[in-house]
């Protein structure tokens, strides 16, 4: 007699939500124009947690820009609209939104981000914590890179090996998942080496207000 193996939530990748056509072509064009115009202002990304924001090319290689220029308000509004349904679909507890943390990240040839979680709970004086992560992809056409999948891992590493799911960084798509979920960015190959051919993404973290004692 066969028996159904017990369900273990720790052995499944975290729940996620994917929205295609999130901004539309016109906005993708404006985002690409902004990104390319500001190429020189992108800085090497650091690693939080024990690394304390330091640059560590063994863990993470990419470049970041936190200035959205004229696009800032529009981005905040667009990302805010998806919170309620996402919380419901992912079965998360409500977020008391303190602020949205937004940045543009460029992954060029050889870039990657090793397995990590996004919560930064090690800062005792913070007013809020990252609760929900959203990543929006907007590479140019024709696509100039390969790889760069977002890999969502299970919390536990099971006997059969690691449990994960790979999500392609599809143009104009948004992926949302709880910030506690382990994940990584698989290595990128970008043969032209041209900044314009990078894997461009917007990271958005929805910060939950900390309860004061
Ligand atoms: O670009 C992605 O797909 C995810 C990026 C990420 O995990 C991060 O910046 O914390
Ligand atoms: Fe992350």
UniProtKB/TrEMBL annotation:
Taxonomy, superkingdom: Bacteria
Domain Fe2OG dioxygenase: 96-208
InterPro entries to which the protein is assigned, alphabetical: HIF_prolyl_hydroxylases (IPR051559), Oxoglu/Fe-dep_dioxygenase_dom (IPR005123), Pro_4_hyd_alph (IPR006620), Pro_4_hyd_alph_FE2OG_OXY (IPR044862)
Signal peptide: none
Keyword Nucleotide-binding appears in the UniProt entry: no
Cofactor: L-ascorbate
Keyword annotations from UniProtKB, A to Z: Dioxygenase, Iron, Metal-binding, Oxidoreductase, Vitamin C
PROSITE patterns the UniProt entry points to: FE2OG_OXY (PS51471)
PANTHER family: EGL NINE HOMOLOG-RELATED, HIF PROLYL HYDROXYLASE, ISOFORM C
Protein name as it appears in the record: 2OG-Fe(II) oxygenase
Native organism: Methylomonas fluvii
